[in-house]
Write the C-alpha cells for this entry.
Amino acid sequence: MTTDIGFPAPDVFEAELTRMVDLRLASRIAQRDATVWGPEAAELAATRLGWTDLHTRAAGLIEQIDTLRAELAEDGVDRIILAGMGGSSLGAEVIARAHDADLVVLDSTDPLAISALSDGGDLERSAMVVATKSGTTIETVCAASAFAQALLAAGIEPRGRLIAVTDPDTPMAEQALEEGWRRVFLTDPSVGGRYSALAAFGLVPAGLAGADVQQVVDEAAAVADAVRTDDPDNPALRIGALLTAAHARGVRTLAMAATDDSLAGLPGWLEQLIAESSGKDGVGMLPVACGSVEAPGFEDAHAATALGYLGPAIGTHQPISGVAVSYEAPLGSQLLVWETATALLCAGIGVDPFNQPDVEDAKERARALLQSDASAQDDDEAAPTLVDGPVIVRALESAPVSAGEDAPGRTATDSDADEPAGAGDAGQSLASTVAGLFPSPDDEDGYLAVQAFLSAEHDEAAASLRELLARKSGGTVTFGWGPRYLHSTGQFHKGGRPDGTFLFISADPDSGPTVDVPEAGFDFARLQTAQADGDAQVLADLGRRVVHLTLTDRQAGVAHLLAAIESLPDAAPRRPEDEVAAAEEPSEAGDEGADPVDTVDAADDVDAVDEADAADEADAIDEADPVGEVDSIAEPDAHAESDAPVESEVSAETDEAADTVTGTDTDERAR
C-alpha cells in the first residue's frame, strides 16, 4: 500500500499535514471525537461516527450472510437484486464489482428498469435486498412493492424473497418484521449512509451475490492502525491534507480514474462520499468519475483540477494543476482510507461531513408534483424553447428576483449574456443550446452536470455524453443517472459552489411502458418525471442555468443528441504538445514534448511554484528533469489564494479525545 502525492508548493502541503498531525485529527476521529468539525456539527457528528471501527464488528454479520446465502441456494435462488439509493447501494455495488459478483442494482425509477425485474424466467431464481437507512426512501419502497407484485403475479410468495437492511424502528423494519420477510438486518444507527460500505448496507447485498466480503473487511483491518495514527505517513492524513491544501489554493475539482481493474467501480462510490460530504455552504471538492486516464477531463484537465489515481499512477503527463494523488491498495483499504480522508477534508474546509442540508428541496418539489393533478402539471409545463427532431428543448427560468437583487446562488457578475444559447430563442439549434451551457474557458470553477433520467441498461449510449461534452467544451463535465445522482452529487449541485450549469435529459412518459406503483396512485414514469422536473426547477430557482431535454423516442433521441453535439468543434488543446500532436499525423516528438511520467512524484520531489510565472497560460515542463517534475503551475488570479495553512474550527486545546458515541458489540442484528 503506497501513497504518492504531487503538490506545486511542498511547504504548503507539509504545513497542512503537520497541522492535522499536531491537532491529532486522525486519532480523534477514530476515537469518535465529535468536536473535530466544530461546535455546530458536534451534535450530529456524535451520532455518525460508528463507521470508524466497522471492521472490528463484522464477524457475526458475515456469518449470517453466509448462512442466508446457503439457504437461498438450496431454494434455487441465485439472483440477488439490490433496491437502494446512494449509500444504500453504492458500497455494495463497488464491492460486488471488485469480486465479479453478479449483483443487480436497482437504483432507478425508470419504467424500463422496473419492468425488467419480471422479464424472462429470472424471477423464479430472484430475491431482493431492500436497503434503506430511513426506511422511507421513495425509490426503494416503490421498487420493493413492484417486485412483490411481480412475484405474486408469478405465483411466488414474496415473504421468502424479500430481505431488509435498515435502521431499527423504521417503517421498513416494522413492515418487514410484521410481514415475516426472509431476513431483517438491523443496522447501526451511528453509521451514516455514505460511510456504510463496510456495514450491512455494503456487505449483505454483495455477500449474498457471491463477493468475498470477509476479504474486504480484512483489507480494511490491515490499514486501520495506520489510519488512526497521527503520523505524517498515515495515507488518510496525506490525502486529506492534500485535498485541503488544494481547496485553499483554488484547486477544487478532483478528477478520478481507476488504474487497477479491481477498483473500476470506486470512482462512482467516491463521487457520493466526497460530493455529499464536502459540497455545502458554497464550498466543497467536486469529484468527477473518469473512465480512464486517457478520458477527456483527466490528464488534460485545467489548472483548477487535481488528479486522483485509484491504483498506480500511469500515463504520460503531469497534471496542469500540479496536484495529484495516487493510492495503491486493495478495495477494503481504499474504503476506510478515503472515508477518513474525506472527513479530514471537511474539517479542513470547515463543513459538516455528515449532513446534507440541500437534498430535501428536490424531494419536496417532486412530492408536490406527484400530489398535484397530472393534467395540471402538463398545463404548467414551460413552453418548448425549440423542437429538434425527437428532442424537445426547454430552458428553465429561475424564480423572479427584485431589481438590484441577485438570484440565490448567483453573483452580481452574472448577466443575461451568460444565459444558455437557445433560452427564449426558438431559432437556435439543439447543438447551440447545449453549447450555451459549456463552462467558460476563463472560469475554471465552472462545470457542466449532465443528469440523465433514463435507464442505464437500456439507454447506455447516453453514458458517453460525459466524455463527448468534455472533449467539445474543454471544461469540467460530470454525468449522473437520475434519480441515482440525487442521492450522490445532488447535494453539491445545490449546496456547493454555485458554478454549475445543468443539462437534464428525460424520456416522454408516453414513450415507454406503463408500470404502476402498487397502491400509490401514480406510475413509475410519472414518478421519474416528477423527480427530474423537481430537481431541475430547484436548481433554476437557485439561479443555475438549466436546460431540460425531453426525448419523444429514447433510442432516436439519444442518437440525435449525440450527433448534434458531435457536430460541434472540439475545444482547443490545453497543452502546447497536444496541439502539435493534433496537427501532425503521426505525432513527432519535438522540443516542446512532455516527458513521460511513471508515477506521481511525492510532494518533496515537486518544485515549488514560481510566482513570477503565475500568469503563464500553460505549465512549464523541465525537459532536463528525467521524471517530468512540474516546474511551474499557471494559477489564474481567481485561484491565487493564500499559501497559509488552512484554518478550521478544530481546537488545538483538546487534551484528550472524547468518545462521545457508545458503540455496541455487534454492528447489525438479524431477525
In short: Residues 431 and 565 are 5 Å apart (CA to CA). Residues 400-426, 585-671 have pLDDT under 50 and may be disordered. The domain at 2-31+228-355+594-639 is CATH 3.40.50 (Rossmann fold).
